[in-house]
Design brief:
The chain is α/β, with parallel strands linked by helices. The protein has 12 helices and 12 strands. The protein has a 12-stranded mixed β-sheet with strand order 7-8-9-6-5-4-3-2-1-10-11-12. The longest helix has 13 residues. The structure holds S-adenosylmethionine and iron/sulfur cluster (SF4). The site of iron/sulfur cluster (SF4) has 13 residues, from helix 12.
Length: about 325
Amino acid sequence: MKKQNNILQDTFGRQHTYLRISLTELCNLRCTYCMPAEGIQLSPRSHIMTYDEVYTIAKTFVDHGVTKIRLTGGEPLVRRDADVILKKLATLPVELSITSNAVIIDRFIDVLKECNIKNINVSLDSLDAEKFMEITRRNDFEKVYKNIMLLIDEGFNVKLNAVLINGFNDNEIIDFIELTNELPVSVRFIEFMPFDGNKWDKAKMVSYAQVMEYVNANYNDGKVIRLQDAPNDTSKNYKIEGYKGSFAIISSVTNPFCDSCNRIRLTANGRLKNCLFSSSESDLLTPLREGKSIEPMIQKTIQAKFKVRGGMDTMKKLEQPDLHGNNRSMIAIGG
Ligand code: SAM
Ligand code: SF4
């Protein structure tokens, strides 16, 4: 039952109803924009939440009004007890979903169905096997593409996430959109974001405006339909008339959606982040293990949330490496 005190509302009146939980810092791919070449300093195993702890923390959030949980990572499915966690979380009254690179998702089709998971986001940054290998540092394109087809055949709603990098995959924007002619998927173009060790540079980012330039140069005006975005949606959604699928742009850098943000993130080592861009984290796991209530720390973290992008409210601040250099790599936060 929902508790009466409103610990998930911040000082700007934003209600946090969407929890993203990272299950692991490990991954079977090595995407250059996510994982630094030298790897990351992994948390000691004993600092990673057990499945019971994941459930207990998630339940606390649900008791306070969270209605949506997305599992992410690292790659959530490489965790040995991923199926156990999925089944436990599926007992909570929430919409459960997952973000995966799909390399091994074929082994989880039955569990995903059993857990009533309908929406699956899959990372796919290129439709070209060699480029896929260049960006992920692994030769798994065929496997991933086959698994995307399997997910569609099995009736899941599939969104494909492509992080755009200037001079690397911006020439595939139209190929991705053409994929939506044949497949009922939503392709989401994500603006490349700065994190520790990912060598971010504004010049490498392909902005929302640039994507729309490609779109407008390739399709007649009347063919590009602006779709209604869902409430709290982070993406601007479009479709090409007559195509089965749609496409969207996630413009966290040039056009942040902070006003309607309802998200909070729990890292695999049990730390709460009130914003993807925030470099501060609050430890929930230690008080939980000490048998203390985690609610005061949750409330404090929500109250400390900045209005815009973890306090980096201008592009100038975002471009200062010392401001985002303390933020962990995406692989350790959970995207
Ligand atoms: N391994 C899973 C996957 O790749 O889908 C889940 C975790 S991954 C960190 C979640 C999402 O974060 C992916 O869609 C990935 O493309 C995105 N991501 C990682 N680093 C990013 C960055 N620097 N800028 C924008 N998106 C990023
Ligand atoms: Fe792994 Fe996903 Fe990061 Fe790629 S984006 S390295 S698949 S966690």
